[in-house]
Every structure is written in C-alpha cells, then in structure tokens.
Amino acid sequence: MAIKTYVQAITEATVEEMERDPAVFTMGEDLRKSVYGATAGLVERFGEDRVIDTPLSENGFFGAALGASLCGMRPIVETVTSFLWVGMDQLISQGSKMRYMFGGQAELPVTFRIRMFYARGAAAHHSDRNYPTFMNTPGLKVICPSNAYDAKGLMKTAVRDNDVCMIFEDGIAISSRMEIPDNADLPGGELLVPFGVANTLQTGSDVTIVGVAGGVQHALDAAKVLAAEGISAEVIDPRTLVPLDTETILKSVAKTGRLVVVDPAHKSCSAASEIAAIVAQEGFWDLQAPIQVVASEQVNVPYSPALEPLIYPTPDKVLAAVRLVLD
Amino acid sequence: MALDKQQLEEMYRRMCRIRYFEEAVIEIHSSGELIGPAHPYIGEEAVAVGACAALEDTDRIAGNHRSHGHPIAKGGDVKGAMAEILGKTGGFCKGKGGSMHLADFSIGILGESGIVASSVPIATGAALASKLGKQGFVSLVFFGDGASNQGACHESMNMAALWDLPVIFMCENNGYAITTSYKNSVSVDHVSDRASAYGMPGVLVDGQDAIAVWEATNEAVRRARAGEGPTLIEAMTYRYEDHSLGLDRIIKSNYREESEVEEARTRDPLPIHRKAMISHGFATEAECDDIEAAVHIEIEEAVEFARNSPFPEPGDLFDDMWATPV
Fold first, then answer.
1. Does residue A218 carry a catalytic annotation?
2. What is the DSSP letter of B118?
3. Number of domains forming the structure of chain B
4. Do the interacting molecules here have an ipTM over 0.85?
5. Neighboring chain A residues of B325 at a CB cutoff of 8 Å
6. Could B125 and A163 be called an inter-chain contact, meaning their C-beta atoms sit closer than 8 Å?
7. d(CA B201, nearest CA chain A) in Å
8. Does domain A199-326 have CATH number 3.90.1170.40?
9. Cβ–Cβ contact B321 with A under 8 A
10. pLDDT(B219) > 90
C-alpha cells in the first residue's frame, strides 16, 4: 500500500495496460514531454510508436484513434475538455454512432482521457466541465473519477471496454492523494473498478448528497460539518454517469427522504439535473423536501479572481442546500 | 502488372452492378417505397470500381453519402445493400444505418458516412492501425471535391504524410458540392495540386476510365505497402443524376446546364470500359451482353430479397448500442 496522487494513478493504469496488451497505445499533444503529467516516462518505456505526439488536429486525431480502434488497436487519447469542441464531429458523428449505425459491426475501444481544468484563472476557453454534453449523446460512456483509487481502477476498466469511453479528470481532484493498494494485495492481482456501480463514501440517515467529479469533495467537506451538528449525511459518488447507478441513489433517497446533488458542470442540463429528474420521477413519494441542485451558475467562466469563485459549487453552498431540505 | 481478362470482366460486372442497382433504387424511390434520401452514383462507377480493383479483400475502404457504389465495388453483396436501403433486417446493418451508412466489416468496408469528409480521419486511423500493428493492409477513402475543403481532410492528409501511413485519398471530383461548383469553392485548379502541400504525390486521373483509375490506385497501393506513405488521387468524374433523390428544389435550381450533363453522358464509364475490353480482345460483344444480362437478374433478385426481408421488431431498438454491455 502506498500513497499515490491522482496523476500517478493514471500513469500506473496506463503503464499496466500498455504492458498487458500490445494493442494499447497512447496519442495526443505533448505526451512525450508529459505536459499534463500523466504520460511521464512512457516514451522511454514503450517507444515512439506507442506514445505518439500528434499535430494540433483534434478532429483529425480523434478520428484516427477511432479508425485505428476499428482495426484491432486500443488507443488511449489524451486531451483537454475545451479541445473536445474542436474534435466534436469525429467524437459525435463517428465515435458515438458508428456501432449502432452499422448494426453492431463496429467495436470502438478508444479511451479518451480528458483533463478538466477549472477554478484556476484560466478564463472561459480553458475551464470547461462539459461531461453532461456527452451524457446527452447516446453511444458514449462517461466516467468521472473523483479520487486516485477510482482514477486508476476506472481507467483500466475503460481501456478493456470495447466502446468509446470518456474519462474526465477533475482538475480539483488531480492533486489529491490517497492510499492505493499494491497489485499483489488485490484479489485478481489488479485494481479494476466496474462501470455503473456507485460508491457510497459514507452512510447516513438524514440527507443524501450525491457528488459528481470534484463535487464529491465538497459533499464530503459539507458532511463533516453536518456531522459535528448531529446531522447524518449519506454521500454517494456515482463514478460513472453513463452508465449511471440510479438504484443506489434511489435506495438512499428512500432511506433519507432528502436529496442534494453537487455538480461542477453548468446547471442547465447538467448531470445534477438529470439525477434530480430521475429521482423526481422514480422516487417522488420518498421525498420529504424538494430536491436541491448545487451546480455552476449558468454564466461563462469569468477570468477575474474576484468573480470566478462565485460560479462553482462550494462546501458552503452544499451546506446551505442541505439546510434548505432539512428545514 | 497488368489486368487480365477475368479482372477486366469483373470490373465491368461491378460497374454494371452499381448502375443497375442505382436504377432500381431510383425506381423504388419514385414508387414511395424508399422513404429516406439516397444519392445515386450513376456516372461515377469507374472511380469506385477502378480503385477497388487494386485492393485485396483485407484492405479497408471508407466512403461518403454517395454511398452505394463504394461497397458494391469492394465486393459487397447487393442483397444486403438493397435490404439496408429499405430498412430491413436482412440489410448490412440490420436496418439501423440505411443508404448513407452501408458497411460490411467482413470484407473491409468500414462504412459510408453522411457527414462530408468524416470518413477521412477514420481511414487514416485504419492505416495507422495497419502500420502500428504491422498488419499489411492499406486503407482507401472516397471523398468529393466538396469534402476536400473540410478541415478533417487537411488534418488527415498532414498526419498521413507525416507518419507515412498506408492510406490512399481518392477524391471523386464530380464538379459540384450539391449545387456549388468546383470553381466557386476550391482555390486551386485541382484538388490533387494540394498534395504537394503535404509532401505526398498528387495524381490526376480520368475518372470515367476504370483502367486509368486502377493504374493510379495500383501505384498508390504499391507505395503504401512499401511503407512509402499516402497518395492523393483526384479522379475527374460527373454525376449524371441530381445530388439526392427527392430534392426537387435542387433539380429546379438549374445549377448546371443541361448541355453540360449531356456532354458528360457521352463519356459514360460503362461503354468506355466495354469498348476497351472488346477493342483489346479481352472480351466479345456476346460476353459483355451476358454479363449485363446476369447482373440485371442479380439486381432483380436483390430487390426481391429486400422486399421480402422483415422489418426490425420494436424489441430490436436498443440492440447494437454497446459492445461491452452496460
């Protein structure tokens, strides 16, 4: 057992999967010099054929990854949330649709590793939290690890999955660290976290707080304050948004009768609004108070440090929402 | 290397197959039996057939919205193609894709695409897989003069040349992107002129002559297999029908002169190939007639098969979403 950062966990998952399967390779911008940290040492270990620095052509190389995946390869593509927009045609028109359009002939084992920076003064072009966009596009698996353990286990599952997987690496969680078991100590000898299985981080009886990505930490921070006040919060991290473990959330709400959802994405059509809608539709009679959503304000991300922090969820906003549902 | 009698006849058979297939589609469309759009390939048959004649079964192709000719040229089954166009379970894609998404992975047809130029990165990636996995196949992508202006095209050509990928960019220049003429949309005289900007050969070829297309493709395939990288081929061709079936507004817009269409029809790729075979002693008039007659029967059978194939059941709706079930 050793303490690892979120980034180290991703590197470990990449190395293990590339060693396990020669069809796995990685491509993206500035990988060999590891500008985003998670690809350090890969080119020395696996060579330039398996660690490809691409031109600045997101649409082109997203599509090339998809095309390679149709012919026996398993690419891991590194990019950044804001550059997904540049490659949307290939991601959506091809990546999300080819398998269905072709009657199930296509297998598209591509893992997109997407760094999600925000809350660090990067302004509107470099602060996107756009995973809900891809929940609304059938055919893509959407994964939001909130800690290092899940980052490693979910990524290894993604690389072995035969569909397009999009892993959003939360910029708030990215520097977090935690204990990750050594492979030798794990049943099966490796860390794999299944899709569609939510993680109940703490059990409670008064209120359910569902956190998404970086929202999980805010939920845990709020839960600590609430515990000191004698309020028992159950904190759930869905871990994957597609597929979504609705059962764990609904069961929790049946127990607590109250739901707060914390989501760093913009509020309209967010992961939070989808979870709220599902609970309103399927768990309405269990609710004792209206569902509260704590998500980013529906405004572009401002640059000024005087303004930017105002738009995101915070532990204080979560606390206020919990007090509202308990009122 | 030269084409032999059997190959030349097979090329003619496939050109006839595309022509008669498209004629049947037009007929079915006009009767109201076909609901979605379809883009006839009539007039351009020599491009797909000439190109695919230079490929092996294991080589990959990808195409565009003018989507029936490419898979048939690659050897795709006309029954499966016709059933797909009618949305039936006997179709290539079990009725999930329709006219613009014909695909048969078992013989290297990685799929046609409704978004112009979107197959170009896919084919480039297939070539990347061939190179990384030392698989030895080449990939070839069909796209039009309109698609040549898409960023996806430029990005793919740059990557393919940079990485010496075994891919062939086959531009079918039919002169029009729906109604916008080539001269109103492309900044250079020929799409193939752009090849030099990426550091690869650009080849201009008569797209009405299947043998000429085969020759150009054959050299590109040789280069690709030898690890010498991609080639951009521009085949000058013409679509005899309008952009899409059922788009009356386009037909009425008079974007091209009737005399221009008539002129293009004098260079019909089917008689050009038939005459070439006969004049060089590879086939007789009677043999060519026999091929035509046999293909007519094949197409009639394909239409019959498609009509008799059942529609999908409502319970099939959610099938084929995931390769790894959720």
1. no
2. T
3. 1
4. yes
5. none
6. no
7. 20
8. no
9. yes
10. yes
A2-189 to CATH, choices 2.60.120.330, 3.40.50.620, 3.40.50.970, 3.30.2060.10: 3.40.50.970
What is the per-residue pLDDT for A110?
98
Task: Report CA Rg, chain A.
Answer: 20
Higher per-residue confidence, B194 vs B253: B194
B231 touches chain A (CB under 8 A): no
A161–B115 C-beta distance less than 8 A: no
Please report whether residue B318 resides in a domain: no
Contact B129 A72 (CB under 8 A): yes
| Distance between CA atoms of residues B36 and B44, nearest Å | 22
- Cα A203 to Cα A200, A220, A223, A253, A321, distances in angstroms: 7, 11, 10, 12, 19
- Can you give the pLDDT at residue A14? 98
Residue B316 included in any domain = no
Q: What is the CATH number of the domain that holds B97?
A: 3.40.50.970
Q: Is residue B317 part of a domain?
A: no
- Show residues of chain B in contact with A109, CB under 8 Å: 323
**If we measure between CA atoms, which residue out of A151, A153, A112, A109 comes closest to residue A28?**
A112
Size of interface A-B (CB pairs under 8 A): 164
Per the structure, the complete domain to which residue B120 belongs is given by: 5-308
Average pLDDT over residues B272-288: 97
B265 within some domain: yes
Domain extent listing, chain A: 2-189, 199-326
Q: Judge whether B199 is closer than 8 Å to chain A, CB to CB.
A: no
Residues of A with CB below 8 A from B141's CB?
Answer: none
Cβ contact, residue pair A94, B118, below 8 Å: yes
Mean pLDDT of B93-104: 97
So what's the pLDDT on residue B254? 83
Q: What is the pLDDT of residue A59?
A: 98
Asked if B126 has any chain A CB less than 8 Å from its own CB, the reply is yes
CB atoms B121 and A63 under 8 Å: yes
Higher pLDDT, B246 or B41: B41
Contact B81, B71 (CB under 8 A): yes
- Backbone dihedral angles phi then psi of residue A146, each to the nearest 5 degrees: -105, -5
Residue segments in chain A with a per-residue pLDDT below the cut of 50: none
* pLDDT greater than 70 at residue B249: no
Q: Does B111 touch chain A (CB under 8 A)?
A: yes
How far apart, in whole angstroms, are the C-alpha atoms of residue B274 and residue B250?
Answer: 33
Tokens of A188: 């099966």
